Amino acid sequence: MNRFLRPIARTLALMAALLGLGLAPTVSHADPRPVNCSAALPAMSGVVDGHLANDPVAGLRMETWVVVDRDSGRIDTTTHARSLFLAKGFTASSLSVAYDACGRAIALTPPLNTSVDAIWSPFGKSDRWKSTHLDMDRQLTRRIARIEVVNAHSPVSAQEIYNRWKPVVCDAVRTISRIVGKPISCP
Predict the structure, then answer these.
(1) How far apart are CA 119 and CA 127, in angstroms?
(2) 97 vs 186 pLDDT, higher one
(3) What are the DSSP calls for 14-30, one per residue?
(4) Is the pLDDT of residue 33 over 60?
(5) Hey, which of 26, 109, 178, 186 has its CA 20 to 30 A from 161?
(6) What is the mean pLDDT of the chain?
(7) Can you list the alpha helix ranges (DSSP code H) found in the chain?
(8) With 60 as the cut, is the pLDDT of residue 19 above it?
(9) Between β-strands 47-57 and 105-108, what pairing exists: parallel, antiparallel or unpaired?
(10) How far apart are CA 56 and CA 61, in angstroms?
(11) 103 to each of 10, 129, 169, how far by Cα in Å?
């Protein structure tokens, strides 16, 4: 990149990060078959996954993978964060929102925070992987059609997103609980 375009690209990346454009979610491919949303949705089996890679600021890299095993109820999340700056680290946070075939949010994972230090930090790590898994009720995970991954540059913004989605997800879980006739706890 020439010396004139580099400052412009860095400025635009910084403006995008300040405006929150780094929070754009990605979605997995949904099943293209039509679904009757007024009837009880059929249970599905197999695996659904989501992936998001973004740079909240040029030089700060976040990447998250989520895999949901519908049959076992297990949700695995892995986040990779790294800083390419000599003197700047950051805290990455990611969460996932799962949707049924009608587009209703039915599951939410708690935020996963990962901190990385600058490259020159003598005791820190500038490249870090963090994994976690969550076990949910199979009646709930069998209805997941797609999953969105949300990466945030700050753990505060991810917690705000989580707090905003939690009541919506809990309402959907109560509806599914009534449909299957079995109590399901809100994730």
Answers:
(1) 9
(2) 97
(3) HHHHHTTGGG--EEPPP
(4) no
(5) 178
(6) 75
(7) 5-18, 138-141, 155-180
(8) no
(9) unpaired
(10) 7
(11) 36, 31, 12
Tell me the sheet residues that pair with 96. Answer: 149
The two tokens of residue 35 are 């679904």
Q: Is the pTM of this model over 0.85?
A: no
Task: Name which of 65, 80, 44 is nearest 133 in CA terms.
Answer: 65
Name the one residue in this structure whose structure tokens are 């999340």. 77
- SS3 of 60, please? strand
Six token digits for residue 86: 């000599």
> How sure is the predictor about 87, in pLDDT bands with cuts at 50, 70 and 90?
confident
Model pLDDT, residue 171:
80
Spatial contact of 155 and 111, defined as CB atoms under 8 Å apart: yes
Residues 6+ apart with CB under 8 A from 65: 49, 50, 51, 77, 78, 149
- Check residues 38 and 174 and name the one with the higher pLDDT: 174
The model's confidence at residue 16, banded by pLDDT at 50, 70 and 90, is very low
The arithmetic mean of pLDDT across residues 88-101, rounded, is: 85
Q: What is the pLDDT of residue 5?
A: 52
CA distance 92 to 61: 9
- Alpha-carbon distance 160 to 148, whole Å? 16
Q: How far apart are CA 148 and CA 24, in angstroms?
A: 10
